[in-house]
Specification:
The complex is a heterodimer of chains A (about 280) and B (about 325). Chain A is of the alpha+beta class. Chain A has a single domain, classed as Orthogonal Bundle (MetI-like fold), CATH 1.10.3720.10. Chain A has eight helices and six strands; from the N terminus they run αααββββββααααα. In chain A, a hairpin with a 4-residue loop joins β4 and β5. In chain A, α1 crosses α4, α1 runs antiparallel to α7 and α7 packs antiparallel against α8. The radius of gyration of chain A is 22 Å and the shape is globular. The relative contact order of chain A is 0.14. With about 325 residues, chain B is mainly alpha-helical. Chain B has a domain of about 210 residues: Orthogonal Bundle (MetI-like fold).
């Protein structure tokens, strides 16, 4: 085993990423760019999936029959179809049904959506409609959008189940006790139901977050250059298969450890009752 | 808020439902008629693509003349899976049926084509069920080893479980598909066997965690009573603790199986054409039908959904 190759030039570039990658960039830089791409898609996905999952989970407990059916339907639909299939379908839909860049859908002439991706205002400039392409701004590639959307839609279904189970785990006696003490609805939810439900939810939530992190590796199926897909190209280029897999293993183990550590801290806080 | 929900929700939902129904049913083309499909494109779905391509979508590269073999395996295995999940028969009968079906199916399928040509839904079923069956004994050993008082064994099991769980399946599959052959002497194992074993080794780590939950649910007194009766360690685990532990975690085991069933779609990435892969096989090379990919995705999505939803629904009845 020999890790010296990571300082050699890799000889391939990446289609996107925050780091500037040239063809003579060394392997370690390109792998780091892959890791950043993983985080770039996983962290927003985590946030949006939590929010969407929270709403759908609460909706599952609603007394309104239509809303309840809608939320249950969402969970049953998206939880029972493989993530890879959802990802491929979303990617196909984006690249097939959206208009080409010169006829991009625009939202108030500041955000443009087309086959070439989503252009949003960056800190310095607002994207404008050019002759053949959208110029300027911050462009999110169709691959990125597909992976993000698929991760959000899929994980939200699981988060919704966690939220529902957490709230249903609060014993009815707790609610009745709080009502008997004269708490109003808002106080009941804020001071009784939420803290108790969170204790049940946080461990399962951290499981879902770790799954999301690992599922981001499916980006390889649509050509999004995240860590695993970059490492695969690196294996083909360098022939250092074992070394590259060990790098992936080490990185994911580290990521999982960091995520698990953060969730553990949250868990301790939640269990102490200090939110 | 209630008023808003009663008024706004139906107002929003009704047109959406109508549009979907119109696209999927009323304006859709069901015959394998390319011209009708191209005319309807945009207004109606082209289910004709499924009518035209279903042998490849369902059975992948399996030779056309021999597809009855794959068909028989598909029907028998699906029936067995649902019968097992519905607990229609006693465990003993179920075990016997699986043990009977497995070698016969292997001979039946291998009689028509080598494993490299196996594909489609039968391959998904085989990878998930056989992978699960192979993973299970390993998971039992890992879960018991994790609780062992012998420190090196405990550390090994813990390390194996945690490292496997930290890795994405894609990486492990890549290892099996492209790296392992470099080390194996001679012809080594074929891709199908390598992927199957990888799936088993991978899911064993997850199953071990599920079983640990089951083991923790068995009261300490059971073990002590078994010890007092003079049973040795193997007898205690095999006859007393494990049956109760497995029973306690049956719902989570079903969940794990459904997860595995879905994750088998990833073998597409290493060029084993199960259901998801065989759809690309059917459409990617066909310039004319290629524009109706979405209908193909929806069709196999429905197939996956039927299996996963069906299995978890049957289990949740108990």
């Amino acid at each position: 085993m020999n890790f010296e190759f990571i300082t050699d030039p890799a000889g391939f570039g990446l289609s996107e990423g925050w780091l500037h990658i040239a063809f003579d960039s060394p392997y370690w830089q390109i792998l780091l760019a892959g890791l950043l791409n993983t985080l770039k898609v996983a962290l927003p996905a985590l946030l949006f999936a939590t929010l969407l999952g929270l709403f759908i989970g609460l909706g599952q407990l609603a007394t309104h029959p239509l809303l309840k059916a809608l939320c249950k339907g969402y969970v049953n639909l998206f939880r029972n179809v493989p993530l890879l299939l959802q990802l491929l379908a979303i990617y196909f839909a984006i690249t097939q049904f959206l208009p080409i860049a010169s006829q991009a859908l625009s939202f108030g002439d500041t955000v443009f959506l087309s086959k070439s991706g989503l252009a949003v205002p960056s800190f310095s400039e607002i994207p404008t409609r050019g002759r053949f392409a959208i110029e300027g701004g911050w462009v999110l590639s169709p691959e990125y959008l597909a992976v993000l959307l698929a991760l959000v839609v899929y994980t939200a279904a699981f988060v919704a189940e966690v939220v529902r189970a957490g709230i249903q785990a609060v014993k009815p006696g707790m609610r009745q006790g709080a009502l008997a003490l004269g708490l109003n609805n808002r106080q009941l939810n804020r001071h009784v139901v939420l803290p108790l439900a969170l204790r049940v939810m946080v461990p399962s939530l951290s499981n879902q977050y770790l799954n999301l992190l690992k599922n981001a590796s499916l980006g390889v199926a649509v050509g999004y250059p995240e860590l695993v897909s970059v490492a695969n190209t690196a294996i083909n280029q360098s022939g250092k298969a074992v070394e590259c897999v060990l790098i992936i293993l080490f990185t994911y183990a580290l990521l999982s450890a960091v995520a698990a550590g953060l969730m553990n801290m949250l868990n301790t806080r939640v269990n102490r009752g200090a939110l | 808020m209630r008023l808003f929900l009663w008024v706004a929700l139906p107002l929003l939902l009704a047109p959406a439902l109508w549009a979907v129904a119109d696209w999927a049913l009323f304006s859709a083309v069901f015959q394998p008629d390319l011209q009708a499909c191209q005319q309807a494109a945009g207004q109606g779905a082209c289910w004709g693509v499924v009518a035209e391509k279903w042998p490849i979508i369902l059975f992948g590269r399996y030779p056309l003349d021999e597809q009855w073999r794959a068909g028989v395996v598909l029907v028998v295995w699906s029936a067995l899976m649902f019968a097992t999940a519905a607990r229609l028969f006693k465990p003993r009968v179920v075990f016997a049926a699986w043990a009977f079906a497995l070698p016969i199916s292997a001979v039946l399928l291998a009689g028509g084509a080598p494993t490299t040509l196996w594909g489609g839904l039968p391959l998904t079923l085989i990878l998930s069920t056989v992978g699960f069956a192979l993973a299970f004994p390993l998971a039992v050993l890992l879960a018991l080893g994790r609780q062992s008082t012998f420190a090196p064994l405990r550390c090994f099991c813990l390390a194996y479980i945690e490292l496997m769980r930290a890795l994405p399946l894609v990486t492990v599959l890549f290892m099996a598909a492209f790296v392992l052959p470099l080390w194996l002497p001679g012809d080594g194992l074929d891709l199908f066997t390598r992927v199957l074993l990888t799936i088993a080794l991978f899911s064993a780590a997850y199953l071990a965690e599920v079983l640990r939950g089951g083991l923790q649910a068995v009261p300490q007194g059971q073990n002590m009573a078994a010890r007092a009766l003079g049973l040795n360690a193997v007898q205690r685990n095999l006859l007393v603790v494990l049956p109760q532990a497995i029973k306690a975690c049956l719902p989570s085991l079903t969940n794990s199986f459904v997860t595995l069933f879905k994750e088998c779609s990833l073998v597409t990435i290493v060029a084993l054409f199960e259901l998801t892969g065989s759809l690309s096989l059917a459409l990617a090379g066909d310039v004319q039908w290629r524009s109706f990919y979405l209908e193909g995705y929806l069709f196999i999505g429905l197939v996956y959904w039927a299996y996963c939803f069906g299995l978890s629904r049957l289990e949740s009845k108990f």
